[in-house]
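Query structure, 58 tokens:
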């Protein structure tokens, strides 16, 4: 989430979202233990939802 927030500040958010959308499987753990601001939670949601909105060729 820190990388996404930094990319947003630098104007590279779409690039970073594409980067995280490349893997077919993205494992994320231990998020429940981290204090997260609403803006960071929104960025995380965008990164995890992005791959489902991009058509995949299997």
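Result returned for the query:
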């Amino acid at each position: 989430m820190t990388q996404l927030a930094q990319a947003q500040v630098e104007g590279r958010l779409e690039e970073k979202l594409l980067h995280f959308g490349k893997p077919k499987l993205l494992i994320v753990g231990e998020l429940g233990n981290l204090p997260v601001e609403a803006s960071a939670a929104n960025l995380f949601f965008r990164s995890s939802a992005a791959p489902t909105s991009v058509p995949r060729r299997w």
